[in-house]
Amino acid sequence: DADPVTQTRRRSFDSWQPKITIKYNWNDDVMTYATVSTGFRSGGYNSPNPSIVARGISVFEDETLTNYEVGFKSMLLDRRLIVNAAAFYQEQNDYQFFLVDFLTGSQIIQNIDKVSMRGVEFEFQALLADGLDVFGGFGLTNSEIRKYAGAGAFVGNEAPTTPKYTINFGAQYVYPVTDGFDGVLRVDYQRQGK
Description:
- It is built from 1 helix and 10 strands.
- By secondary structure, the protein is mainly beta.
- The longest helix has 5 residues, at 50-54.
């Protein structure tokens, strides 16, 4: 038999990614939308370590996603305040996640058969004075493993590497230094859940 570690490996991954969006402009400053979109992340190969090859985990599948989203975008107070919000539901097939293989110590990618996510996002940006902006946002995500042939006991758990919340806030001041050059002072804060 040929050595699976030294063999050339070939595989192609591709996907058609349609997207449909319907939007309605309530006026020049407020718009609502609904969209259905798809996404794709290519599959690939893990290390050709003999232990990984022997257990059949040397290849990871491509990840596909269907996303359903509704939201609004707005520019208020003579366009000095931007407020956007969205709610979404996603279905992911062959969800990819990184882990350390305990037998080899190698970092590998594996797939979870089905994962669903739902959540909301909110963001704002406000011009408080000439050159002074503040901005921020938060997101809440609830994920669930729906099917996992590799470890059925994990069905119902949260998906790995998906934080329950994200928060960001910041401010930026832009001021003229000389003709054609501006100075920028900026501070940012970001936090995410486990």
